[in-house]
Input
Amino acid sequence: MSTTLSRVQRVETVTRGATFVLRRLITAVITLLGVTLIVFFLTRGVGDPVYILQGSTPMTPEQLDLLRQQYGLDRPLWEQYLDYLGGLVQGDLGTSLYTKKPVTAELAIYFPATLSLSVAALILGVIITVPLGVASAIKPGSFWNRLSIGFTRFGVAMPSFWFGLLLVYVFVYVLKIAPAPTGQLPIGMAAPPRVTGLIPIDALLAGEWNVFGAAMGQLALPVLALALTSFPALLALTESVTARVLRSDYMRTARATGLPPSMAYGRYAARNIASPIVTQIAMTFGFLLGGTVLVEFVFSWPGIGQYAVLSMQRLDFAPVIGIALLTSTIYLVLYFISDLVSLALDPRIRHDS
Amino acid sequence: MVDTFLAIEDLTVASGPDASLRTILAGLSLQIEEGRRIGLVGESGSGKTMAAGSIVGLLPTGVRAVDGSVKLDGRELLGMTEAQLRTVRGREIAVIYQNALSSLNPVIPVGRQIADVGRVHLGLTKAQAMERAVQLMGVMGIPDPERRALDYPHQFSGGMAQRVSIAMALIAHPRLIIADEPTTGLDATIQAQVLETIAQSVAETGAALLLISHDLVVVESMTDEIVVLYAGVVLEHGPTGEVMADPLSPYTRGLVASVVQAGGQVSYIPGRIPEPGTVPVNSCPFAARCPLVTARCREERPVLRELRPGRRVACHNVEA
Amino acid sequence: MTAEQTLPAKAGAERGILRVIRHPLLVNGSTITFAILILLAILAPVITPYDPVKVDLSQISKPPSLEHWFGTDVRGMDIFTRVLYGARIDLTLSIGGIMIALIIGLVLGSAAAYFGKIVDDVISRFAEMLQSIPMFLFAFLIVAVLGSGGPTLLIVIALCYWPAFFKITRSIAAPLMRTDYVAVAQTAGRSGMGIVLGHIAPNTVIPVLSQATVNIGFAIQVIAGLSFLGLGVPVPEPEWGAMISVGAPRIAYGEWWMAVFPGLALLVTVIALDGMSRRLAKAEGY
Output
């Protein structure tokens, strides 16, 4: 007797799944296009954008006119947008006024630092908040529950940049156990040969243990600052989802039918908790990649966040626009990925038409 | 003569701190024999669900059995550890709940859920348990069970989902099935089908049935013996047919009268059931709404006494 | 008809403002803290003996003492005074910005719920797009176009937070549109605007207020963050973020008080706002 899906069932499920994926993909693309439109009109359509492009260099009216021609600002707005879009698709994000280099190239240099920071923060954050959230939901009123509430209340209200400064003051200057915030590596230490661009990984690959250790040391404080301030949402979600599942009617049935705890909590509960949590983790990662601005600045971390701030301070706006677009794209991609994950983990979505 | 295998003696369930207990069930005594079908009737808030839950130790936080005993084959169930109770639940005593769709795990195929119960209690292999599950689903009247066993709960209608729950309850051959409002919320025709399925299953497996419901019509058709609960107190207890035809307790009389008659006359009992913990220990809980109430009813709680052979009533103002 | 369809919308204001005020337990630790903060902000000129922007070279970088409770900064300005004056700036800008966001969100949310279909779709998509852009980068873009300073910050906050109010208004109003309650009002001849104001709006008051309170807290963080980076309120102003940016380099010299106290003020304010928001949410049963 066969207990596997019949061919008809399999085709059905795949088709439904494919439709879902396609619809979500289209939504994501449209949203992305919308973002480019918004960014474009924000920076070109408001007032005379030549002033933005001019930045901090004072120019004569003739020079401004030349600038206008050069950037095609004398052409109709729609044409400009299409040109712009065309450029985006080819990876052209404009040129930095300050460094005179293409923005895309600059971002490629700075992005890995943000990536290391975000990935490390994601790992630490998930390791701390998910078990804490689950423990907190299992026993209301317990120590874990109160810790979780405290973490959420505090983390949400804590200004990340101030917390970063506090960490620096306490651990670098008072306790002297953390390295000075000088970026990814201590001053004077050479970076390992570039393989992935992520310094800790490259150090491991090259077998340079001391470099790896130093890199981790440099990561410690900024990751802590990011973890406290970006993870309350995941904690709250984990707690509420776990509580909801544990108190559900179907878990009551699991108890009523005498299932052993390993099965009840392992498969029956966990599978229901997993889907929303994985989705939220994906979203948090997206949030991290776009939200490191303040922490990077405080710790002199050479990532895209700091690059954005410095560019703003230099009135060099092309990089800022480029970073806004990059981070929005990443966010939407992660959102799409999290939709895929939900599709895989939750059968209810597979059967929605 | 059939044997009593489950003896409930003066079961009392309450909630809240020890200093200020709110009694939810005040002393239920019941002998359940093999194959016997018993109905537990009462309005919502009468304590009937707690009664059922306390038998297998499935009570919400803060609610517990504070007195009495529940003996399965002489073994005391109250006070057993979770691990011990797990050998009873699903195996000797199975429970069917009201809302089947929410009582089934949404992310696991239904056949698997039924099979898991079989695996846990009968030591079957995955394949054997699945086979048994599919078989049971067929017996329950679920069309195309092989295919449906791989479906998820949300792909079933309320009535079909309830049949899945019944299959889950039956797979380990329990001796007692507790059905807590199994058809409430279902359409009338579906209700009839589900009840039919339960009746057949119980008859074929020889299991005893404890049917809990507020609906007298449902209980009348499905049970041999009926216990009438009001605010945690048993007011009447006797053979179903006799009680329904000739109710002795004024409460039961009110209940029977409020069932819609063929002539279309509907009556109801004015007032509301009191909250747990608000009824004084020395008063009949029904005193506030009873048409036969006397001063004695408020000073002395009536004791359940056997007015006629097999007919027990708790009331000061009724005679055999 | 289900109970859900007939119950939710109680008539008029009864459900809204009066219920908030009548609630005896509305006052909790957070509300009191926030009330004190507002009071301190308002009374700042009266309570503080020093001028918040006047340079006093004789009092440079003094640690906390009896004369200067929070110490002084690199230009001799009393930090306690500046923190109190800073409360005015931060609270005004954040509350102002959120008010604007709230109005925009309420109007658009009601419109989306009332007109449905295309209007709803378009505005919702637009809100989604805005929310896909990481907040600080979005703020950067606005500052790039409009320049830094207080008024720009108001616009930044309004643009960043209107989607939140839009979503919550829409989520409450949309199901209400389908209730029999509203249908009865419509047959009784009430017009669109009348229905929105009289029947739908009161149901949105508490959730929106709860959202507004917590968002004011977030708005303050954004304002402080931008000012910290030099892109918001300019440095001589006693805005908390700006103060922290001035105090940050001094940490290496052990002069912690310049950056710590404004940050503490930020933390306390946002915690209080969050607490108030939770209390409001509980009143609605969320």
User: Anything to note?
Assistant: Residues 1-15 of chain C have pLDDT under 50 and may be disordered.
